Each structure stands twice: as C-alpha cells, then as structure tokens.
Amino acid sequence: QQQRQRQQQQQPVLCQFSSIGSLHEKWLHQFLSAVDSSSTQNFDPVNTTLSGRKGSKYDGDKQQQQLLPLSARMKIIWPTMEEIRRSIEGYRGGASVPGKIQNLSKEFLQPLYHRWSSRNNGSRRGNNHNRNNNNSVDPLKTARHIPHIKTFVQPSSSNNSEIDWLVLTSHNLSIAAWGQMQKKNADAAPNDKVLFIRHWELGVFMSPGTLANNNNINMPPDADDDDASGMGSNDICMIPYTGIYGDNGNAVIHIDSDDDDGVDENETRKVVMVPLPFDVNPTPYDDDDIAWAVDRSCPVPDAFGCFMP
After folding, report:
1. H or E element: which one contains 168?
2. Which residues touch 205 (CB under 8 Å, ≥6 apart)?
3. Rounded CA gap, 249 and 96, in Å?
4. If residue 274 lies in a helix (H) or strand (E), which one and from where to where?
5. Listed residue (16, 53, 303) closest to 173, CA to CA
6. What are the tens digits of pLDDT across the range 183-203?
7. Is residue 284 within 8 Å of 113, Cβ to Cβ?
8. Cβ distance 10 to 36 under 8 Å?
9. pTM over 0.70
10. Cα angle value 109/41/114 (rounded, 5°)
11. Are 85 and 298 in contact (CB under 8 A)?
C-alpha cells in the first residue's frame, strides 16, 4: 500500500527511443519498477519477478496487483505517421525510427503513446509557456526533425518542471537492450539468477545527486556550503531548457553561454538546464493519431511527393 501511494505521487517515466522490441506487459511493469524512483528502494528484481516464475507465483501476482496501471507509470514518446510525413526529411527520414507494426500495435501499449511534437503547427510547447496561448514554442527546433535519440526521463514528483533523473543512451525499449532476470542454468535454485542482456548499450545517467559530485559546478552565493565539493543533491535542481521567450513567442537559444544555468527563485539552489528535445508534458495521441511504422502503408504523399506503399 505504501508503494502504491508513492507511485501515485510520482510522475510517469518519459520513454523516448527510436525502436521498440517485442514486449509483454509484465516485463514492462518490471522494467518500470527497476527504474522508477518511487519504487526502486523496495523492488528486488532478483527475488521478485512479475512473471510469477519465482518459487511462489502468488508473490509476483500480488505485487503486480499493487502496481498502478502502465498509463500512470510511463509515457512513450513516439512520432505519428503524420509527424513523419510532415517532417523536414519526409517519409525517408522515418528510417531513423524503424519501429514495426507487430511490436507497436500491442493493445497494452496504445494508451501510452504521446506525440513527438504538439499539434499546433507541428511544434511542441515549452512546458512553462501558457498553454492557452496560440503561440507554440520549440526552442531546440526539433519538432519537424526525425528523432533517433534515446532519452529516458523522470519528472519530479514535487515539481513537474524539474527532473529527478535523466538517461541519455543508446538503449531502445527492448528486452534485448535492458535485459531480464533468468536462472543461471536449468539446475539452478529459483533465486540463483543473472541479468541476461543480449545487446550491450552505453548511456549517461544524470541526476542532482550525480551533478553534486561535479566540482566544476559553481554554487549560488547564498548556498549552505562554501564549496561545490560539499554540496548535496538538494542544492541542485535540473529543469528542461525552454529558451528565453521574445514577444513573438519564439525562443532565443544560448548553446554555449553559462547564462543558461542560474539559481532558483530563493537563490539557494544551482539550476542546471537540460536541453530535452521534447516536452516534459507531451501530447497524448488522439483518435486520429497513428503510430509511425516503417512497414505501415500511407497513400498521402509527403513534401517530396513520396508515399508509403
């Protein structure tokens, strides 16, 4: 019950990638329990599996019943057919997102899909922009470019404009990339398991805690600690970079300037800007949206006159 309450307070994990494997719902719950900061302290992937293959099937089933539905635990950011068609590269650019219908069309995945961009002119809204304003912003100009990046993000439970952690990686969402627990061999005891990974990937994990260990970060003058080496995760906050807005709603981008970072309103925490290529409040699919797939037909031509046969 306590675990479920923590999950209800936590924001869903944002999962953005360029390919998806053949997944099943139980594995996806287990994956989220391993990475979600609201559950990792009480989740043991070795001694508790959601597949029910442990010594006691009841343990796995009982824990799954205590979990929130997948739609409350994660959001998948995946471009639609229309977003690919209207992109700078057109349908040819869709080869950078080689998902296939068989893996994308599973029923339990459908409520999880969110657009790469917003519906307003193919651009995404900045998360601190007034959503009732018709002017949409896209500070990194990513909305009409096909993503091949892989980014996994957990927004903060206390403030959705902040980020608890981020992984920039080569991992797509697949069992082969992230692995699964398996018995060492056929004769091994039920709890004698290993994490079996078919594809080795490489990524970078960032959080306020890891950044606090960076001695090159300059702290605000009113911070509790006199030097960066003594600061902790509470002294740093990570927020999505959304640009500096002009009167026309467009954003000014400072890539190399130290002015991108600053301090919070109380001037006690170091603010680290994270240039996410998507909105931390992504737009869910509506009834007209269809997930992009390289093997899906579409008779409507793109800007180059090409279509999907």
Report:
1. strand 163-169
2. 165, 166, 167
3. 30
4. strand 270-274
5. 16
6. 877 777 777 788 889 998 999
7. yes
8. yes
9. yes
10. 20
11. yes
